[in-house]
């Protein structure tokens, strides 16, 4: 199996007035799982469909191993995709379904049983797909995508509808596929569902890329935030914002009146309050969960996006 990466350059798609994808560029490397993250409507599916040659870009290119999907000699041996994990004929058994796709792709029949085994579906091979749970449908979709033993896998929202056990299974499975040297791109609108699964991320918001790179590195770049409970909150806020604490100091007031300070450490904030004789009843580093990072990256705050931008590897 040859290792192919995905390269997206200046990719843009306009549907009439709507710019679904706006000059997006990133690279997806073999051997790791890459999360393609963004809220609903951010443009993830449209980007994946352009990579798969199902939607024609308005501008830019998407290539797999240097070639557009439509230029690949044997596409299903290079790329496997799951865009809709529920799309089966309800009266076909899992084996019938795989046999049909196996024949269409020109793959050896032996792949059907190999994949039923690998995906833990062997004992359900004769059941009609309409009786399958969401998790079983997800596995059958993955089996279908893997029939051609592709080196690149594109999965649109594979964690959707899975219970924690299903997500744990998916994590192990996708990690195995990446360890085999495959390129794995997984979209999601919920970072917490995939944060244990992905190594790298590409984050988009309203069609534009806001961050790309190893998740751990992007999380480290997030400025620390300090939560302050103070009866003198307004004075402290004014003090922090007076411009002499450095250009990066910012304060937001939470609903309960406490302050969320960024651009200053907890010690700097405490010293500032003490020097001005302001009372502080509580102070600590805010929980910098990745979900908060994701919200910071994708919510509508002008000028917020650029500070996390990294090089797409
Ligand atoms: N065929 C189409 N015609 C018109 N607009 C479209 C079409 N396909 C997508 N869009 C619009 O493009 C934008 C991006 O949609 P897309 O489905 O790519 O986002 P997404 O990030 O995959 O979101 P979701 O997680 O909700 O699927 C949305 O505003 C959507 O309404």
TrEMBL record:
It holds the Pfam family ABC_tran. Residues 6-231 form the ABC transporter domain. Keywords: ATP-binding, Nucleotide-binding, Transport. One of its GO terms (molecular function) is ATP hydrolysis activity. InterPro entries: AAA+_ATPase, ABC_transporter-like_ATP-bd, P-loop_NTPase. Belongs to the ABC transporter superfamily. This is ATP-binding cassette domain-containing protein.
